Structures are given as C-alpha cells and as structure tokens.
C-alpha cells in the first residue's frame, strides 16, 4: 500500500521545505560532471529527429539498466521507461525529451553535430540539438545517479521516462497511448526542466505557477475561387482578395472577441497563391499558428477562424461548393499548467537550496511543450511542474548587457548553452525535488 500522498499546501510545504543535504548533493554532482559532460558532448554530436531517436534511446536505456532500473524500450515508438521501486510511498515521474531539430548547426563547437537526416518533409537536412534536449537528457542521467546513490534517503516509486518527439508534439501522447499509465505506475507527481535562452546567469531557475506554456494549434485554410485573366477580374472570384479579407478579419478574434484578460495569438505565417502576373488563381492557401491557454479560449479562436473564413467567402459571393476548407492539424499541443501550490513549494525549496538570487517566478510564454500531456491525462490525481534553467553563457549575457546584442533563441543554429551549469543545476534540482516528495519514513 502506498504511503498517503500529500495534497494540501501545508503537507507539500512539510515534505519540500527541508531539502536533503544540499552540500552533499552538490559535491556528488561535481564529482559526476566529467562523465556527464562526456555524455553531453556525445549526445550533442549525434542528435536524431523526432521518432528517429533509436541510438539515443538505446544508449541511455543501457545506462539506466546499469543503475539498477527496470527498463522498457520502445514505449510510444522510441520512448524509454525506467522504474525503480523503493518501498511504499508516492510515485514521482521525471521526464526528459530526446529529439533534435532539422537545423544545420553553426555554433563552432568542437563537438558540433555533423549529422544529417530526412524529416517528414522529404528534404535531407542537418540535425542539431538546437533546443537543448541534450542538456535535459544529461541532467536526467545525473539525477538518476544521485537518486540511486541515496536510496536510503527516499521511499516510493521512481518512474523516469525518456520521451521521443517533443518537437513534433506527439511524443508524450504516443507514450500515454502505449500504456504509460497502465503498464507502469501512474505518478502522483511529474517533473521536468527545460533550458532557456534567458537574460539571466546560467544556472538560474525560473518557474511559472499556473499556465506556463500555451495551447499550440496549426491550422490550414484552403481558400477557393474562380480563376481567370488578370485583365478581366469581373469574370473571376479572386481568392487572393478573399484570403486577404480573411487575414485582416482574423485579427479581430484576439482584439475584439477574446477577453482582454485572456492571452491569445492568431498568426498567419504563410500565404500562397498564384504563379504569374496576369493570372488570377483559383486557390489561395493560408497557414496559421494559434496560441491560447485555456480550453475555452482555444475553442473560441478555432471556431472563430472557421466562421470568419466561411463568412468572408459568402460576402465575396462564392457558392456553397467553393466554401473554404479548414484543417486543424492533429499535432495539437495542449497548454502546460503548473499546479500553483506544488509550484510555490518548489520555488521555496529551490530558493533554500540554490539561494534566492538563483530562483525566480517567470511569466508564462506562448511556446508549447507536450509535457502538459502527463498531467492532463489525470488532472485530479497528478500534480506537475516544469521549470526553466537559464543556459545563457556569460559572454552572451555580457554582450546583451553592454551592447544590447540579442541572445540566440532556442531553435537557433547558434544556440550553445552553458551546458555544464544547466546539467549540474538540472540534476541537483530534479533529485532534490524527487527526494523531498518521497521522504524516507
């Protein structure tokens, strides 16, 4: 039988307020760093695209087996689940994502990726860990080592998962569909971290209570028309004019239909139509990214897009059989919600462990993260939190402060985080949080 899981604010404060031996953990992390940095350089030099992480998964699965975990590979295609049962107590899930991006690396690092691969687009490209998933995996391994070395200091079940295809938005969903919560222990808590290109020293931790990242939808609109000669527009139904009207009207969804207190984004990222100066096309194609936080806001925006597209087509005089076709792509990523009470206690615990100058509350962002799926699968039972760790190297931060030189963002071919500080902080933060949630009786 599991030990009762703390759910109240006071109970969470009790188990998280006294982190286990910060100096000992930090000393052990420092001792592990040479081997961890060797692993990091290997992972960085050999990235793999979403759902192609075969070598990465096998390499890390073997490490987890050597640490004594029960390891299952191939969960959700290329995911890895490692379980360690250590007496009665809560179940804590720790997640790291594995996939790289179709980006040609330009960091100049001596271990820069030279890998190439062919994504779904069919165009062979360079591959890079431009989002820092290599630091996530290495910090994950570091945390696993710390927790194994301290099995007498915690009690419960540890479920550590290496997730595929975060960048494609389908990895977490694939693992859950493959029985993550039925074949393996369902967590009471879920934890993860993400590196950040932040205007703060490397190793600084930031957490956002409540909504932290957005719902992310990709929407395609096929705008139909009646083509013809550009000199005789009266004989046509111009899809470019119609699509332009749709683009302009879409702006009112956020400015006039969504509450001013509810964030939202509707961006038309692509507008394609026509092939020659004097030909009016019979089709235009729009590609949109739509961002929101609540499910209600998401529905309002998506319903509004469909209504506006059809309404503008009717206003343009198009017949029913030429109404726009709306496709909401299936790679939807739901918003990430950090349970506020759990998050506040992590903030307090990290502040005590790392010092208040290294821990801060962060504003939410409109990026997406499919870590959200793990809580969403059972929100009444699972408390979850993802936190940021700044990876901004000191020279980049100095250039920002002195010259106003912008930082390379995540997904940039120039993003080269201070990996050592991200990994050391991530390993210690994950291990200390897990131990605080699973105190030994």
Automatic annotation (TrEMBL):
InterPro entries (UniProt xref): Amidohydrolase (IPR017439), Bact_exopeptidase_dim_dom (IPR036264), Peptidase_M20 (IPR002933), Peptidase_M20_dimer (IPR011650)
Stretch forming the signal peptide: 1-22
Domain Peptidase M20 dimerisation: 213-312
Keyword Cell wall biogenesis/degradation: no
Pfam families: M20_dimer, Peptidase_M20
Keywords associated with the record: Hydrolase, Signal
Name of the featured protein: Amidohydrolase
Species per Swiss-Prot/TrEMBL record: Qipengyuania mesophila
